[in-house]
Description:
The chain contains no helices and 35 strands. It is globular. The chain has a 20-stranded parallel beta sheet that branches. An 11-stranded parallel beta sheet has the order 1-3-5-8-11-16-19-24-27-30-33, with no helix packed on it. By secondary structure, it is mainly beta. The chain has strands spanning 6-8, 11-23, 29-31, 34-46, 49-51, 55-58, 62-67, 73-77, 97-99, 103-108, 114-118, 122-124, 128-133, 138-139, 145-146, 149-153, 157-159, 163-168, 176-180, 184-186, 190-196, 201-204, 210-213, 216-220, 224-226, 229-235, 240-244, 248-250, 254-260, 265-267, 273-276, 280-285, 292-293, 295-298, 302-305. The protein starts with 5 loop residues before the first strand and ends with a strand. A hairpin with a 5-residue loop joins strand 14 (138-139) and strand 15 (145-146).
Amino acid sequence: KQKRGIQSGDYVQINGGKISISSVLGNCIRANDYFYMTDGSLTMNGGGLNVTNGYFQMDGGSMSVSSSLKDVKIIDVETEFVDEDGDTIADATHGAFYLNNGDIAFNVRGDGSRFVKTDGDIVVKGGSIKGLMAGSSFLADDGEVENATAMKAGGVIKFLGGVHALSSSPSALGVRLLSSDNGMTFGGGVDISLADSSDLFRYVNSNGEDDAKNPAAIKSDNPVSINLCNMYIRTDNYSSGIWTEADIEINDGAVIVADCKQECIRIKKDRGSAKFNGGYFVGTTRSASSPFTGLVSPRGGFFCAG
């Protein structure tokens, strides 16, 4: 009730058994070097799992997490893996969060909370991640907005396998399901479903002006590449389907961004374009004037939007 359920100055490894931890303050688990799970089941309630100087890796087993705490990071990996030039290492084995196999379920209800937060990369090669974001963004005491986000990477996000389903509640405000500073890649036959029902988070900024944070199923500050995968996105209210500050390329697979109230794909003006090189794409909106914001370039594959 005061600190952490399990703490190690080195690593925490789970190879079997059934472990259940509740924590209302601090973390359920804290490790310095790494957290590694190969089998068994782990249930965490309240606090999360923190790695201070290493990585999270899961090769098997099952994990279930639930929290209603405000501004909590359920899986928090603080390490940023960089090379000698200071560039983020994108190799899967050096990903700050690495899921190779196993099942993860989450239910995050606290405002400003995040299911996964890493300073480095998020790499998913198999297994499943399924869960709900039910908390809203909020305005912190320093005047900054703490975004409620399912999975946030300071590096890149790569989904290269497995079956995944992430969603947000209609009562939540300003939620982003996948958010990356350095771009995203989808491939390897991954099957991913994103349903963002979030609405705008409205607030008064430091200049005393009315402002808002837009929700999105996918938000990236750098290019998004979609290859061999099955992707289904549905959004409500003011949530965008795919929002990128750079190019988006669809090269293969099936991408459906359907029944959206806002744009299916949103690209910041003069920053990039949507390039459809192959595969199958369908984009439909309920009330937006156009399914796209930004330049669109259909080059190949099946393309249908309206």
